[in-house]
Amino acid sequence: MFEQQKTTLMEILEGSPNQALSRYAEWLISAVVLVNCSAVILDSVPEIHAQYKDFFHELEFWSVMFFTAEYLMRVWSLGAKYAGDAWRGRREYIFSPFGLVDFFATMPYYLHVFFPLLDLRILRVLRLLRILKLSKYNSALQDLFSAVYSERRAFGSAAFLLTIATIVSASLMHFAEGHAQPEHFGTIPHSIYWSIVTITSGFGNVDPVTKGGEVIALLTGFLGVCMAAIMTGIVASAFANQLSRKKSAYQAQLRQVLADGVVSDAEKDALKRLQMQFRLSDKEVQTMMEQAQAGKTIE
C-alpha cells in the first residue's frame, strides 16, 4: 500500500533526475536552511533580538515544523529503497551522517521546549549546524573528506614533521626565554603552546626579549610558512586527484553504456544520476561523450 507514493517521494527528496520536482525541493530546503542560519546569526545581536524576537521565535517554530516534516517524510519514503525490507533503507538513512544532521537540525527546539533552562548559546550553536544540511546538495564537503582520506599518508607525514618542529622550537624557546619570561616560557608545555600558535598564525602573542629568542621566533615563523605551503600543496593535489577520479569513473561508465551502440532510457537515467552525484557540468559531460565516441570510432 502506498508503494508508488513512497517511491515518488523518495526520488523527489533524493534528487532523482526522474522527478522534475526534485530540483525545486532541493532549492526550497536550501533556502530554508540559509534563512534559518541567517536568523540565528542576527538573533545573537542584542539590539536586533530585542526588536525582532517575536519574529525569530515564529520563524524558528515553523522552520522546525518544516525540518521535522522533511525528516519524517525521508524516513517513511526510504522504506521503498529495498523491496521486501522497508526498514533497511530507513536504518541506513537514520544512522548515516546526513540522517544525523537532519535529526539534530530539529533537536535544539525540542531541547529548549523540554529543558527551558539550557544555555541559549549552546542551542544557537546546535541550530547553526543546520548549515551542514547543504552538504547533501553540494559535494564539496564530501570531496574534502575523501581527498584528506586518500592523502592520509601525506598528511600523516606532514603532521609528524610538524610535531617534531613544534617540540624542537618549544624546547629552544624554553632554553632562550625561560629565565627572562618564566610566566610564558617557564616550562616546555607553555613553550609548546607558543610554538603551535606561532607556526599556525605567524605570531605567538608573546614577544621574545632576548636575542636568541628573537632568532628562534623568526625561524619558527618561517617554518610555519613552509608547513602552510606543504599542507596547501597536499590539499590541492588531493582535490585535483579527486576530480580526476570522478571523471575517470564517469568515463568508464560512459564507455560501458556506448559499448553496444544503443543507449536505453535506463542507461540515460543512470548517467544523469552519476553526473549529478559527481557535480559534472554539461560541458564536461559533452566533452567526455565526444571523446568516448571518437575512441569507439577509431576502434
Q: What percentage of amino acids are in beta strands?
A: under 5%
The count of β-strands is 0
Could you give the distance between the termini?
50 Å
The pLDDT mean sits at 83
The CATH class of the largest domain turns out to be Mainly Alpha
Low-pLDDT sequence parts: none
CATH architecture level-2 label of the largest domain: Orthogonal Bundle
Helix content: over 70%
What Rg is obtained from the alpha carbons, in whole angstroms?
Answer: 27 Å
Report on the biggest sheet.
none
Q: What is the total domain count? A: 2
Question: Which characteristics define this entry?
Answer:
single chain, 299 residues, mainly alpha, Four Helix Bundle (Hemerythrin (Met), subunit A), Helix Hairpins, 2 domains, 0% strand
Record the SSE blueprint:
Blueprint: H1 3-13, H2 21-43, H3 46-77, H4 86-94, H5 97-104, H6 107-114, H7 120-128, H8 140-150, H9 152-177, H10 182-185, H11 188-201, H12 211-258, H13 265-278, H14 282-298
Helix pairs in contact: 1-3, 2-3, 3-4, 6-7, 8-12, 9-11, 9-12, 11-12, 12-13, 12-14
Q: In a nutshell, what does this entry contain?
A:
With 299 residues, this protein is an all-alpha fold. Helix content is 78%, strand content 0%. It has 14 helices and no strands.
